[in-house]
Amino acid sequence: MALKVKEVAELVGISVRTLHHYDEIGLLTPDKVTESGYRIYSNENLETLQQILFFKELGFPLKKIKEIINRPSFNRQEALELHHKMLLEKRNRLDKMIATVEKTMMHLKGEIEMTNEEKFEGFDFSHNPYEQEAREKWGDEAVDHANKKVGNMTKDEQEKMSKTMASIFKKLADLRNHSPESKEAQAAIKEWYDFLNNHFGHQYTLDAFKGLGQMYVDDDRFMKNIDKYGEGLAKFMRDAMAAFVDKNKK
């Protein structure tokens, strides 16, 4: 079955722009392009797209996905088996976090009591789904510093760090209807900048900080996680981070 780009986008639930981008970077090239310029996708193209989206869901950057699926040794069946194992592990972690959320709601209603340990079941700083992407963008040294820093923390220190992160995100979420350049927004975004530089063993340059803000919007996974604190927060943070950098570069 041959499908046009719009039909593939509707079938899969991604944008036409995303498919165009995959074609432009050589990640997914349609089997045929008509004389009028229409991209035509085959069943084999769809199978490749499925693989790409499995890898993407598991946190692999597009550059790495392209490298993997173009290897002569790439085996689709082996890849699917690996996807299955990784997704099961991810589901188990999410199930634990869902249970923690449900217990916390009951705790807030006074229906149950929770220990400090129970409040953080499901959180796992030792498995970062964005680690490979961070390595691609900023190099191994920065990520190794961050992992070493977090790895050396006690459980109490990790819990404290998690709470501080949540507190900053909530503060920014409350300000997201203000101007990103407002005094309040800039004070909160400076708190985020200082937090990143003080807790991960790596000093973000102003340019790297601005690039990080852009990634919050460009990467759907980052946007979804950040926007859990308030719809539009990722875009607000991107704009506030850009304003912070521009202001401090003067």
UniProtKB/TrEMBL annotation:
Lineage: Bacteria, Bacillati, Bacillota, Bacilli, Bacillales
SUPFAM superfamilies per record: Antibiotic binding domain of TipA-like multidrug resistance regulators, Putative DNA-binding domain
Ranges for domain HTH merR-type: 2-71
Keywords: Activator, DNA-binding, Transcription, Transcription regulation
Source domain of life: Bacteria
Record-given protein name: MerR family transcriptional regulator
InterPro entries listed in its UniProt record: DNA-bd_dom_put_sf (IPR009061), MerR-type_HTH_dom (IPR000551), MerR_fam (IPR047057), TipA-like_antibiotic-bd (IPR036244), TipAS_dom (IPR012925)
Record flagged with keyword Transcription: yes
Organism: Pueribacillus theae
One GO molecular-function entry: DNA-binding transcription factor activity
